[in-house]
Amino acid sequence: MHSKRNAYALLSAVLLVGLAAPVLAWNSTGHMTVADIAYDALTPKTRAAVDALLTRQRDYGLWVSQMPAGYTDRARYAFMKAATWPDDIRKTPDDRPTWHYIDIPIIAPGYTPDPNALLIVKPNAETQILAETALLTAPTASDAERGVALCWIEHLVGDVHMPLHDAALFSPLFPSGDRGGNSESLAAGAVASDPLESRANPHKLHALWDDVLGSTQNPREIEKFAAGLEAPAFRRNTYPQITAHPGVHEWIVEGSILAKQHVYNNLTLQFTPTGDGKAEVTLPNGYLPNMHRVGNRQIALAGLRLADLLNAQTFPPVTAPLTPLSPSPVPATAAPVSIADGQIIGNQRSHVYHLPGDTRLPAAKNRVYFKSEADAIAAGYHKPGG
């Protein structure tokens, strides 16, 4: 554990876990926590390789521009942010929705499903962990391509340790599958003090597992959560499956078993049909504390396995890394201003870059900063209309 984690942070995190705090799930907070645990377990050689590679990822400048004031571990923060990148690009041309999951069928007792409904979509999380790992070390791949591959690996290893990314329930109510818990919603107030109850849409069973922690991308808070999951109760020697199940497919089978046992409560969850193949779910007593326990262990396990996967790779050398500027984030309400100090500002959505003097700037949240036009071009950005 690195020196920035003081005793207070560790004690707070351990107490948080011990008191059945909200599960460290797989929203941005969960993915960043997986990444932080993994980062601590990387060998010095691997850490140097991924640090250099991420400076070639096209959104590296955006990440460092978002780093909170006073937080100085840029490399660690970039590794955390890389783990959220595949979710950050949702609904863009780079989005790959089917990569995030693999639906291993869980079939209700006595139900005979249509065999065609059970076909597993490809590409999926399993195919892409393997494909992106191969790309990560391909000597013919560019640094930029390998930087993107690293983001996908970080993210997908986290995803397959969330049980509802590994399974779908098939039953008379869900003949086409429940889409990994996305066809079941919870009644309002089903989860006491749920910070997400203000959502306009019903709270899905999937979201209960995915988002129950709420949302923070503050690296100091992430480090506290990670410190708690690096405590003795979560260390490597408590996970015999690391040795027993070394393959990606085995990780996914583990997740589907956890889904059957703990998400669907050994197929005893009670559903009330609401029409259109959807249902409202009733949570039994003890469901949430058990979810906290399973979720915490899966987050820690994902971090250890991610580190093992990366430590096993031989990384090609990275060319001279980019050095995008890291100014303080511009408030979202700030008025557009011209570039008067020689900075190049890119738009992370369109990948257009703007030269000094250009007043047609992207929204502050979409800005990426570069020191030179050459750096912007090297990161895959182009002039307006180019």
Description:
With 386 residues, the protein is α/β, with parallel strands linked by helices. 40% of the residues lie in helices and 9% in strands. Strands 4-3-6-5 form a four-stranded mixed beta sheet. A three-stranded antiparallel beta sheet has the order 8-7-9. The chain has a two-stranded parallel ribbon with strand order 1-2.
Distance N to C terminus = 47 Å
Briefly note the structural class of the backbone.
alpha/beta
Specify the overall morphology.
Answer: globular
For the largest beta-sheet, the strand count, sense and barrel status come to: 4 strands, mixed
Overall radius of gyration: 22 Å
**Spatial order of the strands forming the largest sheet:** 4-3-6-5
Short description:
The chain has helices at residues 7-18, 28-41, 44-54, 60-65, 74-82, 85-88, 125-136, 143-159, 205-211, 219-228, 241-244, 248-263, 287-311, 373-378, and strands at residues 104-107, 167-170, 184-186, 203-204, 270-275, 278-282, 344-347, 353-354, 367-370.
Task: Give the SSE layout.
Blueprint: H1 7-18, H2 28-41, H3 44-54, H4 60-65, H5 74-82, H6 85-88, E1 104-107, H7 125-136, H8 143-159, E2 167-170, E3 184-186, E4 203-204, H9 205-211, H10 219-228, H11 241-244, H12 248-263, E5 270-275, E6 278-282, H13 287-311, E7 344-347, E8 353-354, E9 367-370, H14 373-378
Parallel strand pairs: 1-2, 3-6
Antiparallel strand pairs: 3-4, 5-6, 7-8, 7-9
